[in-house]
Amino acid sequence: MTENALTYKFAQILFIMLNLALQDPGKLKDVENGAAQPSRTPVTAKDGNLVEPLSNGLLLAMTMDEIKHKFGEPSERTRDARTFKYPTFDVQCGGRRGEIWRVKLKRGVKLNSGVGIGSSRAEAARLFGDADIVIYDQYKIYFEFSDDAVSEIKIEPAQGSFAPYKRNTDQRSLRAPGLGAQASDDQFVEFR
């Protein structure tokens, strides 16, 4: 790891610790291996990560052709030729490959962690931190809330394009980094 990468990682960890301490000093149990360890219950997933696979079978690395093959023609078109509406999600695709740029989940679709439209703010916060915009692994997730419940979830790549999700083959419990797992250079929680 280069000196710049180590400095960046150290800054990320300090940022996470500072935000957790400012939100609620009691959340920090201890510091282990340089990562903040808030007292949160881990989530166990049989496969995937906290985001994928989505409950409807949509994989975020799919192209528009793959989406049409799996889900059929969109149920509704928009004025934007790149945006397609399906009963359980809206998707915006583009680029030469027609890859997903942005997806908006609708009622009935859940992230692999179980969070979906109608989930409580507390459940989303337990898994992803108490933030409206979260960067987790390759995903930038936008949560909107109404009456302490999730009212909208949008997902776009944190950088570049979505890659096929990494399967959880060792059955370890999953947590958003900064909420118990050690953050890496490309995987951290952003508080706003």
Which characteristics define this entry?
about 190 residues; alpha+beta; two-stranded antiparallel ribbon; disordered C terminus
Taking the sheet with the most strands, its summary is: 7 strands, antiparallel
Residues in helix, %: 10-25%
- The chain-level structural class is alpha+beta
Radius of gyration over C-alpha positions, nearest whole angstrom: 17 Å
In terms of DSSP E residues, the strand content is 25-35%
What's the total count of β strands?
A: 11
Task: Enumerate the spans where pLDDT stays under 50 for 5 or more consecutive residues.
Answer: 20-45, 169-175, 177-192
> What is the terminal-to-terminal distance?
28 Å
Assembly classification? single chain
Major beta sheet, strand line-up: 4-5-6-7-10-9-8
Mean pLDDT metric: 75
Domain count: 2
The H/E string reads HEEEHEEEEHEEEE
What overall form do the CA principal axes indicate? globular
Task: Count helical runs.
Answer: 3
Can you tell me about this structure?
This protein is an alpha+beta fold. It has 2 domains: 1-39; 44-169, no CATH class. Helix content is 19%, strand content 27%. It has helices spanning 3-23, 64-71, 121-128; strands spanning 28-32, 35-38, 43-44, 76-77, 83-85, 89-94, 99-105, 133-136, 139-146, 149-157, 173-174. Strands 4-5-6-7-10-9-8 form a 7-stranded antiparallel β-sheet, with helices on one face. The chain has a two-stranded antiparallel ribbon with strand order 1-2. Strands 3-11 form a two-stranded antiparallel ribbon. The protein is globular, with a radius of gyration of 17 Å.
